[in-house]
Amino acid sequence: MYEKLAIELNEQNLQQVIETSMQTPVVISFWAPSMPETAEVNNILEKIATQYQGQLVLATLDCESQQMVAAQFGVRGLPTVALFKNGQPADGATGPQSEESLRTMLSKHLPSQEELQLKQALVLVDSQQYSQALPILRELSAHFGQNSIISLAIAECLVETSQHDEAETLLDTIPMQDQDAKYKGLIAKLELHKQASDSPEIRHLEEQLANTPDNTQIAYELAVQYSQVDRAQEALELLIKILRKDMNFADGNAKKTMMDMLSALGQGNAIASQYRRQLYSLLY
């Protein structure tokens, strides 16, 4: 059973409801209690309106109790459905309707389910719920293809969840004309991260490892340093090389460090998935 959300039209609220269509499309269902098929159309429209989550206003007009109002619309038969946009009738249908026929009519004037999902995902980004927004945006990216709005939103989620390498790769794909203030802000954050993650201690360990590439202890110390400054991919690459040689290196701490990093990156992270598979192949 769907919670009743339709506005019941009458002479007093008619003008106000029509004016609402200046901002949000309004669908009016003309019905009569004595005709069960018209009540069924109301039920279908309530179901559809619930799924559109505020993108559609539903109103019903009882043509038996509101005959004067019905006459203003020139309704000739029931059920009748009329769609209003910008204060004017934009579409309609008369006669028996199925859910499919009503959805087909409304879809010409309303955002798709994917567009609604995108709007909700962008709200999550704006409210800094990056981990919740990221998987939704990734799925929508596959649906919409190259879309700078989605790409920038994904990049923001990646930067704010310390997935800097993937964020940088994604930002490289943004066309020149879409490199707006948000893009420049994300690039600036990446630059700050790079500066912070290139400490003298890290540079010293990198030089030592370059001179003695087989020194597993130095590789492990560098991996730990990388992990502390969110250089996840570099840390994981060093750790998996260590574990291929010795699964119990550093009394098992190398394996623990890697598993902790994979856990922190989460299930949806592409880099984590890549190295998780490599680790599991060694373990099992």
UniProtKB/TrEMBL annotation:
Coiled coil regions in record: none
Superkingdom to which the source organism belongs: Bacteria
Stored PROSITE patterns: THIOREDOXIN_2 (PS51352)
GO CC, any one term: cytosol
GO annotation (BP), single: cell redox homeostasis
InterPro entries recorded: Thioredoxin-like_sf (IPR036249), Thioredoxin_domain (IPR013766), TPR-like_helical_dom_sf (IPR011990)
Domain Thioredoxin: 1-111
GO molecular function: protein-disulfide reductase activity
Pfam families: Thioredoxin, TPR_19, TPR_20
PANTHER family per the UniProt record, alphabetical: GEO12009P1
Protein name: Co-chaperone YbbN
Lineage of the organism: Bacteria, Pseudomonadati, Pseudomonadota, Gammaproteobacteria, Vibrionales
